[in-house]
Write a structure and sequence with these properties.
664 residues, alpha/beta, six-stranded parallel sheet, 22 helices, globular
């Protein structure tokens, strides 16, 4: 349909006169064609599959990059015009290199102040120094494969800043798998960087925005666009940036260009997303010019995935037996099978010759049940899980640290003082700088077991390796947790192989050989196409990889437009279907601590008239939110007034009485 009376000719003349003349537009278009051509040339060597389907996928990512740049420019200009604001401008060119130099110098001074009076401290310093030296290498995909407790956060920060300075990178993006890890890493990084203006922390999305084709959602205009030198975010947000169809996520994709991306605990990438993840990282390193660092003590064999990560076998810190020996603080022991109600008795026996014990469970209800059984004993008992908001977990961790610190001040084990038990889910497994004398881990993936072991004898308090017990929970139901169930099965296969021939694994369940065996068994057990992210669509199972590449399930002879266009991917449908974890979640603000005051203030403002105050409240609310699965939300909605909508229904808050001060 042709629209009339829109003054097109006048608008065009004004644009050419005030923005750019036709000659400049033609030159820019020619330049863009050349640049896209260079990108296409870079993509060709990446295509490894027989039928070239990967090429279609990479082409789709290139289109996403172009769309991201358009959305960023449009939303930025719109936000500045509508809200009478100006986004902060950060240095570029030589000024940016000078900024990196200043921040790096500050970090180097602080690192120089760290004591180096123990074997572990000296080993951490050597690892850190190797990271700084390696930063002079050109960009690419590299692995930082060091033991738990080796100081990955500071070492990766040192690498990233040095690399950014030498190669004048646009920004540094740190990702963490859990909010609890992000909070702790953020504290460390902010302390060493020393300038909060340079750091953006982006995680929970409390605001649920709606967008129509006719009207941009005003709240979306305030969404973070990663326009900051140092970004601290979650793995979920990174994966959403790569694949989600929400324009707020697509908008951020352009921020990956020329960046340093540090992915902490890379083994937590869901196995169902390995194809999308591997190919996107290949694209980011090759086309976007990003340097990607994969951090983990249990590096997954991504080069053995169905669609491999390419050129990622280079280690920033190569294995060194002498260097690694300082971190051998535990011994992982297979302690057989027990029912859940038998575990408390076993735990108390383990605690007889120790002062502190950590029990890590696979399910929140398991952890809560064990906690309620054990808390009646003559010791201090703590509970941690994702059912608790960040502020609650932070406070509990502080009390736990104080209790463990009181034990450390005693003269000898077994002295007259309170012992400590903590029952937790996986939230304590990575990035939490805490140390227990003993650990019990319910059987799970070896990556989780090794992470749990990293909370035991962390600083070498015990001169001999401390026991970490693997217990198979005989009556455990992991039906809703398929990835944990599959990982547990692969671990049990490793345990059996280790029992028969321990020497093949260096008599160590955490050796490289053992971890490789685990991942190869894990990948081998996956059904064909599992790593491609299967979803249900129009009554049949399809993969997001297919929708984002050749779209063979729908771009067929029955599709009238099939073959008419270069691009036949189902971008919109794939973006709408993409989820990092199975099951849609909703973030709600809970009445814990300052959360109560935030909920009160939300009820007193008009979001249409006071967007700035609303945005400030939502920033404060991030530490007081909990994610609900759809079945949890449905259950609460059946309770009268359990969930209360605020700000026109875009924000949900939890009513008093539905949040437990101990378990969340």
């Amino acid at each position: 349909l042709e629209q009339t009376d829109i003054d097109y000719e006048e608008s065009l003349a004004n644009y050419l006169a005030q923005c750019a003349p036709l000659e400049e537009l033609d030159a820019l278009f020619t330049q863009a064609v050349t640049e896209v051509g260079r990108c296409m040339e870079k993509l060709q060597p990446l295509v490894q599959d027989e039928y070239g389907v990967e090429g279609d996928f990479y082409l789709g990512l290139l289109m996403r990059l172009l769309l991201s740049a358009v959305i960023e420019g449009d939303r930025r200009d719109t936000a500045e015009f509508m809200n009478h604001m100006t986004y902060p401008a950060f240095p570029d060119g030589e000024a940016r290199a000078a900024m990196w130099d200043t921040v790096l110098a500050r970090v180097e001074r602080k690192l120089g102040e760290l004591s180096c009076d123990t074997d572990i401290a000296r080993a951490r310093r050597r690892i850190s120094e190797q990271c700084r030296t390696f930063a002079a290498q050109p960009g690419g995909v590299y692995r930082l494969n060091v033991p738990t407790g080796a100081g990955k956060t500071l070492s990766s920060l040192r690498y990233a800043l040095t690399h950014a300075k030498i190669w004048n990178k646009s920004r540094i993006i740190f990702t963490s798998p859990l909010l609890s890890i992000l909070e702790q890493n953020a504290q460390i990084i902010r302390k060493y960087v020393g300038d909060d203006r340079l750091v953006l922390e982006h995680h929970s999305n409390v605001m649920h925005t709606n967008e129509t084709a006719e009207r941009l959602d005003e709240l979306e205009l305030l969404a973070e666009n990663w326009n900051c030198p140092i970004i601290l975010t979650t793995l979920v947000q990174l994966l959403n940036t790569l694949f989600s169809g929400k324009t707020t996520c697509i908008r951020r994709f352009q921020a990956l260009c020329g960046s340093v991306i540090v992915i902490d605990e890379v083994q937590t990438v869901p196995n169902s997303l390995l194809t999308l993840f591997d190919l996107a990282i290949n694209f980011a390193a090759t086309v976007c010019g990003a340097t990607v660092i994969l951090c983990s003590a249990t590096q997954p064999c991504l080069e053995a995935a169905a669609h491999p990560l390419q050129n990622a076998d280079r280690q920033i810190v190569p294995y060194d037996a002498a260097l690694w020996s300082a971190f051998r603080r535990t011994q992982i022991i297979d302690s057989g099978s027990r029912r859940l109600d038998e575990i408390p008795e076993f735990a108390l026996r383990v605690l007889e010759d120790a002062d502190s014990l950590l029990i890590v469970c696979n399910r929140k209800d398991e952890a809560e049940r064990l906690y309620r059984t054990l808390r009646a004993g003559p010791y201090r008992c703590f509970h941690l899980s994702a059912a608790m908001c960040i502020a609650h977990r932070r406070q509990t961790l502080q009390m736990l640290q104080n209790a463990l610190g009181a034990i450390d001040k005693q003269d000898a084990p077994g002295a007259d003082h309170e012992k400590v038990i903590c029952v937790s889910t996986q939230v304590i497994e990575a990035g939490v700088d805490i140390s227990f004398a003993r650990v019990i881990r319910l059987a799970a993936g070896m990556d989780s077991i090794v992470q749990a072991a990293g909370r035991c004898n962390r600083n070498g308090e015990c001169q001999t390796p401390a026991p970490v017990h693997i217990v198979q929970c005989a009556d455990e139901n992991l039906g809703r947790l398929r990835e944990i169930q599959a990982a547990k099965a692969a671990s049990l296969q490793l345990l059996e192989a280790f029992r028969q021939q321990p020497e093949q694994y260096g008599n160590d369940l955490t050796s490289d050989a053992a971890i490789r065996y685990y991942y190869h068994r894990l990948y081998a057990a996956m059904a064909k196409g599992y790593q491609d992210d299967t979803v249900s669509l129009s009554g049949k199972s399809v993969t997001l990889y297919s929708l984002l590449s050749d779209n063979r399930d729908f771009a067929d002879a029955d599709c009238p437009a099939s073959g008419q266009y270069l691009l036949q991917q189902a971008f919109r449908i794939a973006g709408a279907k993409f989820e990092v974890f199975d099951g849609e979640t909703t973030d709600v603000i809970v009445p814990y601590g300052e959360g109560r005051q935030i909920i009160l203030e939300l009820g007193q403002i008009d979001p249409q008239r006071d967007l700035a105050k609303l945005y400030a409240l939502l920033e404060r609310a991030k530490a007081y939110t909990v994610s609900l699965y759809s079945w949890q939300r449905s259950k609460l909605e059946k309770e009268a007034r359990a969930l209360i909508p605020k700000c026109g229904g875009s924000i949900l808050v939890l009513q008093e009485g539905y949040y437990d001060e101990n378990t969340g």
